[in-house]
């Protein structure tokens, strides 16, 4: 039985344990997309996990969906992220950037060029999105031409190269909710070219992005995040969904990616199928996982690593608290996104550490 606290070799790097910090949008970057002044400290505080997957990071102007999210495609972005990487590495951690192209989940007010969002098809999600001017209806996106799809694939590859240039250990392709998932879903993809219709065609974009990133930085530095059970943002993969994801995971396995990161909402049958189909690392995230279940998926062999989001957000010393069987800080959703009235550190780098709490008790 494998212990979640044991080391793990992921590609060419050795992780100090099998805990993963899940990617979490914080919307605290500078307006030009460079990480904010406290980003290095935020990630440093949480670097005791084996692998940090950063917040979603846009690969281009078109890829930005929300205000104050970071990018990784300019020299300024590279310089800003280098400080984050150095902080994580100095404390024994490793880091993959999550490359997130928001696709139709965007608004012109949130992007540097203020243009209409792009998507597989000109179908809006029927939802609102946060902007610095308040909540607004998401406009109808513009359907990418076939040539523009190929150019978008190259945007991912370019961003991956800039990530490695900044000192990242690798990148994770975000395949949930946003552009990659929008190509998979019949509700958002009604194309009639080679990227629409059949399972093979709808999976093509995800596979081509992975191929391009692998060609740029190597398979050992490339992961992907998927969720067969995700149905938010107006996305519906249709009755073929399980077969689509089995096909996609099988095709991606041929590329020998470092890992697949699964966010799991449904039955475990498909996870067992992935365990059989996929021959490298599996990271498993179960939203709302109970504390007593931490480590069970690694122990059973269903996953090689387990990822945690809000627990790590609110507890920079998450592993120390588990080891001491200490209470966990509560994550406050009101401070998840954007700068807070109480100051830039509020809800970001000001969560109390266990040793400071214990010192207070002793005093």
Automatic annotation (TrEMBL):
GO terms for cellular component: cytosol. Residues 4-329 form the NADH:flavin oxidoreductase/NADH oxidase N-terminal domain. Coiled coil: none annotated. Signal peptide: none annotated. One of its GO terms (molecular function) is FMN binding. This is Alkene reductase. It comes from Luteibacter pinisoli.
């Amino acid at each position: 039985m494998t212990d979640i606290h044991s080391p793990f070799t992921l590609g060419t790097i050795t992780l100090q344990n099998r805990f993963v910090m899940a990617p979490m949008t914080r919307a605290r970057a500078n307006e030009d997309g460079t990480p904010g002044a406290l980003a290095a400290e935020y990630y440093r505080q949480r670097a005791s996990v084996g692998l940090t997957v950063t917040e979603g990071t846009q690969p281009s102007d078109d890829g930005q969906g929300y205000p104050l999210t970071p990018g990784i495609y300019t020299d300024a972005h590279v310089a800003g992220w280098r400080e984050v990487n150095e902080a994580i590495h100095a404390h024994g951690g490793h880091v993959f950037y999550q490359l997130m192209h928001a696709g139709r989940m965007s608004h012109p007010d949130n992007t540097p060029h203020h243009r209409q969002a792009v998507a597989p098809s000109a179908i809006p999600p029927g939802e609102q999105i946060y902007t610095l001017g308040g909540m607004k209806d998401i406009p109808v996106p513009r359907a990418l031409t076939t040539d523009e799809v190929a150019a978008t694939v190259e945007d991912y590859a370019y961003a991956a190269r800039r990530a490695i240039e900044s000192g990242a250990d690798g990148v994770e392709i975000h395949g949930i909710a946003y552009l990659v998932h929008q190509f998979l879903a019949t509700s958002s993809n009604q194309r009639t070219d080679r990227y629409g219709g059949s399972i093979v065609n709808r999976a093509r974009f995800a596979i081509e992005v992975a191929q391009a990133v692998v060609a740029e930085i190597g398979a050992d530095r490339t992961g992907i995040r998927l969720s067969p059970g995700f149905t938010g943002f107006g996305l519906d993969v249709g009755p073929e969904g399980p077969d689509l994801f089995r096909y996609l995971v099988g095709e991606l396995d041929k590329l020998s990616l470092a890992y697949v990161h699964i966010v799991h909402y449904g039955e475990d049958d498909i996870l067992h199928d992935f365990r059989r189909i996929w021959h490298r690392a599996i990271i498993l995230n179960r939203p709302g996982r109970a504390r007593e279940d931490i480590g069970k998926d690694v122990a059973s062999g269903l996953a090689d690593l387990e990822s945690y989001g809000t627990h790590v957000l609110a507890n920079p010393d998450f592993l120390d608290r588990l080891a001491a069987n200490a209470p966990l800080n509560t994550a406050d959703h009101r401070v998840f996104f954007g700068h807070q009235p109480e100051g830039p550190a509020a809800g970001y780098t000001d969560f109390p550490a266990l040793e400071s709490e214990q010192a207070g008790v002793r005093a």
